[in-house]
Structure formats: C-alpha cells, structure tokens
Amino acid sequence: EQERKRLLPLIQKEMSDKRFNHVLRVEEMAIQLAKVHDVSPVQASLAALIHDYAKERPDEEMIHYIKTHGLDQSLISFGNPIWHGILGACLAKEELSVTDPMVLQAVRLHTTGAKEMTDLDQVIYVADYVELGRQFEGVEEARELAFKDLKQAVAYETKHTLLYLIQKEVSIYPKTLETYNQWVVKK
Ligand code: DGI
Ligand code: FE
Ligand code: FE
Ligand code: FE
C-alpha cells in the first residue's frame, strides 16, 4: 500500500532500530490476527505501525503536550508507559495526517485496553503482547489464545499485565482496572 510506504520512514526516524523492529513484528502479527478474526488487515497494519510512535518523545515534551491540549491532567502523575499510546494517537493525527478514527482509537488503547474495545482494538492490544520477539513466561499460551479466541487473549494479557504491575508495586491507571473488571472478572 501507498500509505504504508509514506509512513514507514516517518515512523522509523522517531525510534531506535530495536523499537522499529518491534513495530514491524507487531504489524506482522496484527495482520495475521486480523485475517483470522475478520478485521481489516489494512487498518491493522496502519495501527500497528503507529502504535509506539510517541514512545521515545522526551517526558518534558509529553507533559507540556498534556498541559496544553486539554487532556486529562491526572495523566501527568503516570508516565511514558501510559502517555505514549494516548499521545501517539494525537501526534499521528497531527504530524502524520492519519485520520481513520478506528485506527487512532486502537493506538490510544493499545497499552491499557478499555471497557469497550472493537475487534481492531483487541487485535492491536494483543499483537503488541504476542509479537514473535516477545519472550516471557506464558507468551506461547497467549499467542495460541490470540488465534483461537481473541477475547480470551485480551483477558489473559490484562490479567497477567496487572499481576506484573502489582508485583512491581507501580500505580495502576484507572482504565487498566476498567479493562480488568470488564474482560477478566467472571460475571
Ligand atoms: O510500548 P510497549 O512496550 O510495546 O508495550 P505497551 O505499550 O503495551 O506497554 C508499555 C508498558 O506499560 C508495559 O510495561 C506495561 C505498562 N502498563 C500497562 N498498564 C499500566 C502500565 N504501567 C502502569 N504503571 N500502570 C498501568 O496501568
Ligand atoms: Fe506501546
Ligand atoms: Fe501492549
Ligand atoms: Fe509496542
């Protein structure tokens, strides 16, 4: 696609080779998952390519952006892990002229998930977690679930991310808890 060709160099110059290679692996995984789960591979590719676009911006620049663009000010007490998806969606629109609201939402939610997630949101959330470069205990189970049952893969990722964050005793972003309550808690 033409759009992909336009974006690749713009994305690459924002990040280290290591992160760019992660982005390409997320794209590969997102396209595969999209095909299995009846999601547009074009939207999956685009969202994957821009999902970590803001990840290497300096903290001061991100804080300034949050203060001046009417974003939720409680964001400031978190940090890059929580900022980069939200700002990534904003900056991809402003700087890369990506306009598809579905793609931008998938980028915005890719770290925390949300109570309501479209199939595209789920594909990006999960593809980031199970791309072939990821190595952690349980990644193979998560990968298998990603192809078999996307919703269960979202639940698995949410539960294990939360366990990991709690073990580290770091703050939990409210949206991460909302995702847990919606996707993990048995009803
Ligand atoms: O950007 P990536 O490293 O590819 O992956 P990501 O955007 O999915 O996650 C970035 C980090 O954010 C990851 O280490 C887990 C962390 N994270 C997810 N939810 C929360 C969180 N960190 C905090 N402090 N609070 C959260 O609620
Ligand atoms: Fe990310
Ligand atoms: Fe993720
Ligand atoms: Fe990522």
From TrEMBL:
<protein>
    <recommendedName>
        <fullName>bis(5'-nucleosyl)-tetraphosphatase (symmetrical)</fullName>
        <ecNumber>3.6.1.41</ecNumber>
    </recommendedName>
</protein>
<dbReference type="GO" id="GO:0046872">
    <property type="term" value="F:metal ion binding"/>
</dbReference>
<dbReference type="InterPro" id="IPR003607">
    <property type="entry name" value="HD/PDEase_dom"/>
</dbReference>
<dbReference type="GO" id="GO:0000166">
    <property type="term" value="F:nucleotide binding"/>
</dbReference>
<dbReference type="InterPro" id="IPR051094">
    <property type="entry name" value="Diverse_Catalytic_Enzymes"/>
</dbReference>
<dbReference type="Pfam" id="PF01966">
    <property type="entry name" value="HD"/>
</dbReference>
<keyword id="KW-0408">Iron</keyword>
<dbReference type="InterPro" id="IPR005249">
    <property type="entry name" value="YqeK"/>
</dbReference>
<feature type="domain" description="HD/PDEase">
    <location>
        <begin position="15"/>
        <end position="142"/>
    </location>
</feature>
<dbReference type="GO" id="GO:0008803">
    <property type="term" value="F:bis(5'-nucleosyl)-tetraphosphatase (symmetrical) activity"/>
</dbReference>
<keyword id="KW-0378">Hydrolase</keyword>
<dbReference type="InterPro" id="IPR006674">
    <property type="entry name" value="HD_domain"/>
</dbReference>
<keyword id="KW-0547">Nucleotide-binding</keyword>
<keyword id="KW-0479">Metal-binding</keyword>
